[in-house]
Design a protein that fits this description.
By secondary structure, this protein is of the alpha/beta class. The chain has helices at 11-22, 39-45, 54-60, 94-97, 101-104, 110-117, 132-137, 157-169, 215-223; strands at residues 3-7, 26-30, 49-52, 63-66, 85-88, 122-125, 149-154, 173-178. Strands 3-2-1-4-5-6-7-8 form an 8-stranded mixed beta sheet, sandwiched between helices. The longest helix is centred in the last third of the chain and has 13 residues, at 157-169.
């Protein structure tokens, strides 16, 4: 059985864990505070889930999701991720992450920063542009007329294919943004950030019910992004 490893334990992490268990995947959860702090979530998820350290989650995962503040990238274990597809859900936010000059100057995207840290892994940006409540509400079967699409970006074609396979298992289609240099198109402040997945399709998404967003709609939002 395939396994999803998760590094981080916020809302996106717990939502992805629930979707993965629903899809029949095993889940290994981790955070910086230790496996004992994950016991309630593990108990909720049932026998397919277990708590672990970040290094153990990285080693166990066929896919590994890093869902931590961008300022904590340096804590992600390198060795167990060599050769693996690593999905980055991060969004740089200086008041939380601290000022990172390379990101402020737009010399790199935050996913490129993670890729530099994990030089022997294959980073794919995904799951960063949807509110966790909408992420939980919108999965649909393959070929459903109202299936929602999520953008991905990455430098390795094989890794993007593998990430898209996971996204499909969890109930979503994918829209390819291109390499990691283009991953800014789905981040905070862009038209593709969260608004497409709410009924009102605007910046009030936090208070609005979920609504499907097609690949064409998401692709148009990505194309209209400006830096």
């Amino acid at each position: 059985m395939a396994t999803l490893g998760l590094i981080g334990s916020g809302h996106i992490c717990s939502t992805l864990a629930r979707l993965a268990v629903d899809a029949g995947l095993d889940v290994v959860l981790s955070n910086s505070r230790g496996p004992h702090t994950l016991s309630d979530l593990v108990d909720e998820l049932g026998p397919r889930a277990r708590g672990a350290t970040p290094a153990q989650a990285a080693a166990a995962g066929d896919w590994v999701v890093v869902t931590i503040p961008v300022g904590a990238i340096g804590t992600v274990p390198r060795e167990p991720l060599v050769g693996k597809t690593v999905i980055d859900t991060g969004n740089y936010f200086a008041p939380r992450d601290g000022t990172i000059p390379e990101l402020e100057a737009r010399e790199l995207t935050d996913s490129e920063l993670l890729q530099r840290h994990l030089a022997e892994a294959h980073v794919v940006k995904a799951f960063n542009n949807i509110n966790y409540k909408h992420l939980r509400a919108l999965p649909r079967p393959v070929d459903a007329a109202d299936r929602t699409a999520l953008p991905i970006a990455g430098n390795d074609t094989g890794a993007k294919k593998q990430a898209a396979e996971l996204i499909s298992l969890l109930g979503y289609d994918s829209v390819d943004m291109g390499p990691l240099t283009e991953s800014w198109r789905s981040q905070l402040g862009t038209p593709a950030f969260c608004a497409p997945y709410a009924v009102t399709k605007d910046d009030q998404y936090r208070t609005q019910p979920a609504a499907p967003a097609s690949a064409a709609e998401v692709g148009a939002a990505l194309a209209s992004a400006q830096r």
